[in-house]
Design goal:
The complex is a heterodimer of chains A (110) and B (114).
Chain A (H helix, E strand, L loop, with lengths): L4 E3 L2 E5 L4 E6 L6 E7 L6 E6 L5 E4 L2 E5 L5 E6 L8 E8 L6 E2 L3 E6 L1
Parallel strand pairs in A: 2-11
Antiparallel strand pairs in A: 1-3, 3-8, 4-5, 4-9, 6-7, 7-8, 9-10, 9-11
Chain B lengths: L4 E3 L2 E4 L5 E6 L6 E8 L3 E9 L2 E5 L6 E5 L5 E5 L8 E8 L9 E2 L3 E5 L1
Parallel strand pairs in B: 2-11
Antiparallel strand pairs in B: 1-3, 3-8, 4-5, 4-9, 5-6, 7-8, 9-10, 9-11
Classes of the chains: A mainly beta (110), B mainly beta (114).
């Protein structure tokens, strides 16, 4: 059983469309991170959210941390082929190791 | 500054053999974590080292071990390889131990066990 469930696991859309990826858990996290991983590379941190209800924007990407700090979402506006990759959420609980979701594999078709 | 360096990038082994993977963290980073990534299980935590001491360990059998040297470089070893050990092994470094710091990942070592 995954502590962090990401949905959808796979998403293929056309360039210009909007999309939302979800990261859900029954556990509370002190912070949550989103990473993007491209083929042949390691994950790269996109954002860290630490406050319940927090919203952070990174160009066309909007990240939200749930009020109860149990879930998070990533919204991409006007997706571009360069957004293609594996998106991973990772939750932190105190001094424990980061727990990763299984990831959402996103493909943006030109 | 140079990123996290993992060697080798690719390797092929047969069942029963053992393998050692190496990770050089970003200069100044003292924490090194290892993860196993497979399509079915995603990123699974193996262990974390800080100042040559193992701080956390994931739920992997004793065949998986690691160590960290005084220069913060780390190695992980897998003995008696099984087919299911085929995976991308990722190393990540951070300035601080635990979850508070951003993880900087290497490109990984892709292990294939035949």
């Amino acid at each position: 059983t995954q502590l962090l469930e990401q949905s959808p696991q796979f998403l293929s859309i056309q360039e210009g469309e909007n999309l939302t990826v979800y990261c859900n858990s029954s556990s509370v996290f002190s912070s949550l991170q989103w990473y993007r991983q491209e083929p042949g590379e390691g994950p790269v941190l996109l954002v860290t959210v630490v406050t319940g209800g927090e919203v952070k924007k990174l160009k066309r990407l909007t990240f939200q941390f749930g009020d109860a700090r149990k879930d998070s979402s990533l919204h991409i506006t006007a997706a571009q082929p360069g957004d293609t990759g594996l998106y991973l959420c990772a939750g932190a609980q105190g001094a424990q190791k980061l727990v990763f979701g299984q990831g959402t594999r996103l493909t943006i078709n030109p | 500054k140079a990123g996290v360096t993992q060697t080798p990038r690719y390797l092929i082994k047969t069942r029963g053999q053992q393998v050692t993977l190496s990770c050089s963290p970003i200069s100044g980073h003292r924490s090194v974590s290892w993860y196993q990534q497979t399509p079915g299980q995603g990123l699974q935590f193996l262990f974390e080292y800080f100042s040559e001491t193992q701080r956390n360990k994931g739920n992997f059998p004793g065949r998986f071990s690691g160590r960290q040297f005084s220069n913060s470089r780390s190695e992980m070893n897998v003995s008696t390889l099984e087919l299911g050990d085929s995976a991308l092994y990722l190393c990540a470094s951070s300035r601080l131990a635990g979850e508070s710091g951003e993880l900087f990942f290497g490109e990984g070592s892709r292990l294939t066990v035949l």
